[in-house]
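In the current project phase, we have settled on a layout for protein records. A sample record is reproduced below.
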Amino acid sequence: MNTLEGFCEITPKIKKVQFLIRGKMHVTLEDKRVIIVPLAAFPSIKKVPLNQRNKWYLVGGGVTWDACPEVIHIEQILGNYQKYKHT
């Protein structure tokens, strides 16, 4: 059995967002996967003051902050950024 086979049927959902390493965002999914992405991919998050980054909240299938003008969707975090990019 392929170990990744079990993830094919799971809809990824954000459980927790952390900033443990400078310049990186750690996203823990409900299925216990952890995705680490560079903040360079999300300029709007880079503008959120450091003391407010841990004050995130879920909106639909994404995450945002009071100081952030955009919702970061799970699809963006998983690598389909162009599909959800705000212009």
